[in-house]
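JOB MANIFEST
job_type = single_chain_structure
chain_count = 1
residues = 213
[input]
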Amino acid sequence: MEEKIARALLSIGAVVVRPDEPFTWASGIKSPIYCDNRLTLTSPKVRGEIENGLANLVHEKFPECEVLMGTSTAGIAHAAIVGHIMDLPMGYVRSGAKDHGKKNQIEGKLEAGDKVVVVEDLISTGGSVLEVVDVLRDAGAEVLGIVSIFTYGMKKGLVRLDQAHVINHSLTNLDVLTKVAAIDGMIPEQDIARILKFRDNPSDESWIREGKE
């Protein structure tokens, strides 16, 4: 499943691996990889693989799940489709409370004690998804864990999740994706080490120079 999803993401350009022409993230960090999982929604075949994969993860890893909550905005559509597949209630958490109406931050019905799984598209440093977890916990929900499409496996993200006592299960990850990209001839095999070096320490840009030596 991990290789199948990785290959699917690469095939539609939802994940682009380009170590010789690094992307610049909003934080200013240079990255050999860029992920836009919103593109999965525009490909019916890949979308089906992903949503069924997420549903299987919830069923296998969190069988007691009662409610799905998507992250805003990337996780909303995925939570809705998975909720439909599994016949589960679904809602989402805003990045901040509305300043009008009921001033909700959580959209959808959620009762104290509900067993919730958070649906996210991408895990990097873990900051945004853990904010969602905090909001849900403050509302009295029991957050069982997270299911996501892709994770970089960054140390900062892993430490944050561990400290928050949150389990994440992803359909695929950077280690698998780089291997698949090399097998399929998208990158030379030697670039795997460069990309993983970036993952292990994003602030160290020496991986860029290594490709030019």
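[summary]
The chain has a mean pLDDT of 94.
The CA atoms of residues 12 and 42 lie 9 Å apart.
exit_status = 0
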